[in-house]
Amino acid sequence: MEKAKPNTQRCKGCYYCVKACPKEAISISKEFNSKGYAVIKVDEEKCVGCGVCYTVCPDYVFELA
């Protein structure tokens, strides 16, 4: 089954994915990327690979793999 794989270096902290995830599998982590943004993390146990995060993300952070 495909899961959402984030490239957190692309994340700019809009958190559209956090709000849009129907399974609440995406949350804001306490880690920051090289641009200084608090990045997201994906709970692979909850992720069902629906692709909503991929669709709403304006910065192409997600890949489904």
UniProtKB/TrEMBL annotation:
SUPFAM superfamilies this protein is in?
A: 4Fe-4S ferredoxins (SSF54862)
Q: Is Iron-sulfur among this UniProt entry's keywords?
A: yes
Any Pfam family from its record, for instance, is Fer4_7
GO terms assigned for molecular function: iron-sulfur cluster binding; metal ion binding
Alphabetical UniProt keywords: Iron, Iron-sulfur, Metal-binding
The 4Fe-4S ferredoxin-type domain, residue ranges = 2-31, 38-65
UniProt name for this protein: 4Fe-4S dicluster domain-containing protein
The superkingdom listed in its UniProt entry is Bacteria
